[in-house]
Amino acid sequence: xxxxxxxxxxxxxxxxxxxxxxxxxDLAGTPFNKAEHNRALQDRIxxxxxxxxxxxxxxxxxxxxxxxxxxxxxxxxxRIFWNALVDGVLRWLGTHPGWPEP
Length: 102
Known about the structure:
Helix 1 (9-28) runs antiparallel to helix 2, helix 1 (9-28) crosses helix 3 and helix 1 crosses helix 4 (83-94). This protein has 4 helices and no strands. The chain has one domain (9-94). The longest helix has 20 residues, at 9-28. It has helices at residues 9-28, 34-45, 49-67, 83-94. Helix content is 62%, strand content 0%.
């Protein structure tokens, strides 16, 4: 897939699921390696490290915007995101109703 091309819902869902897995580990105090998560995603969705990290930052912005919550060391805050990412976060949260608000 060419850089800058549209992301599929499945791709967004995978990045969102990974984001929340890392965030869950962070909130639980469980050690995690964000770079390993990124490399695993690169193999599964054919995106580069920077593209995945950019989407993580955008998901963090969606989460903070939607919940008005504190930041996380998982990613830095971004203030610009697109509706497909909002939809992906909402899909993930919809299948994980017990997810705690940080």
